[in-house]
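Entry type: protein chain
Record version: 2
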Amino acid sequence: MTITEAMNTYNPALAILKDKGYVIKIILNEDKEEIFRWNALKDENDIYAFNPLSLLALCTIAEQYGDNWKNYCEPDLYDELLESAE
């Protein structure tokens, strides 16, 4: 299987969030013409993102690491992958 970030992956991401018990909201811009942000609410978690895939990723981080998500930094996989990029 090959899957790429695109709008056709938004609905599955939103379905996963709904199945996990999140309340999902869309925040529109001031003109109410475009989506400004996506919001997922559950328990004490109030999570914002610019698209449903990022929202799913941030909710997963919150679930995995909780309030200490900022303190998780070992190993630094981002730098490791950047150094080994081809």
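Comment: The beta strands are 23-28, 35-42, 45-49.
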